[in-house]
Amino acid sequence: LSGKSKKGPAMTLNHPLSNPRGIQYPGDFPNITKMLLARGMDAADIEKILGLNWLRLYREVWEK
Predict the structure, then answer these.
(1) Which three-class secondary structure state does DSSP give residue 34?
(2) Per-residue confidence band for 33, with pLDDT thresholds at 50, 70 and 90
């Protein structure tokens, strides 16, 4: 399996897609943390934004 649809995209986008400045490549993702810290966010809140909220949700849903 190639992971590609033989039918083409599920929907056509009528606008150009662009990444936020400073996050052009996967290696730039640490810039998200740097930018949030520069805006004065607390490290615990940044951890939640970057994934801990998803982990909490998964635990709550799948443990039931």
Answers:
(1) helix
(2) very high
